[in-house]
Amino acid sequence: MSRRLEGKVVIATHNAGKLAEMRELLEPYGITAVSAGELKLDEPEETGTTFMANAEIKARAGAQSSGLPSFADDSGICVAGLDGAPGIYSARWAVDKKFDAAMARIDSELNAKGIGRDHPRKAWFISALCIAWPDGHVEHFEGRLQLVVRE
Questions:
Q1: Is 147 exposed, middle or buried (0-12, 13-18, 19+ CB in 10 A)?
Q2: Is 74 a catalytic residue?
Q3: Cα R_g (the chain), whole angstroms
Q4: What is the pTM of this model?
Q5: pLDDT digit string, tens, across residues 15-63
Q6: Are 22 and 37 in contact (CB under 8 A)?
Q7: Cα 58 from Cα 47, distance rounded (Å)
Q8: Which of 42, 73, 74, 83 is catalytic?
Q9: Exposed, middle or buried by CB within 10 Å (0-12, 13-18, 19+), for 58?
């Protein structure tokens, strides 16, 4: 059963840019967003094997530590020719948080497997969202964008 999100919510992030985006999205609905960083909450270790599992780990930690509903996300790119990699490790492939570095590595690894630019390159972007309440109630949302790249 879905719940209505209202009042104050923790955005389970220490990223000021992400917090600013979430505040802008939630403000028209009367929801006040505060970050885990502002509340000095610890960042939990992301030990999940899926985007959703990692989003839930962060959301539950925020809700339990703050006593407020907590919103978290996890996202990345999955490449068919790389058996779904980089997947949950997408951020690690983006050296110094640069998207171009991740794309260069993807291109290099596809080429090494014989999947050159003359072949269709299929990938998808996944964004998993989770909201957790202090009483243990959790809601999940996931979006997938299919990508086919051919130059």
A1: middle
A2: yes
A3: 17
A4: 0.88
A5: 899 899 999 999 999 999 999 999 999 999 999 999 999 999 999 999 9
A6: no
A7: 10
A8: 74
A9: buried
